């Protein structure tokens, strides 16, 4: 999930999986997809 947080009067987008902050919602959502993949374990073939 991506949550919004207020810092210094600006809205930031936080990845709830790892706590990373992004200033762009689309960046946070793009990261979240990769972050979820990491939590589920590697899906790529080694
Ligand atoms: Zn993350």
TrEMBL record:
InterPro entries, per the entry: DUF7128 (IPR055552)
Ranges of residues in domain DUF7128: 1-46
Protein name: DUF7128 domain-containing protein
Native organism: Natronosalvus hydrolyticus
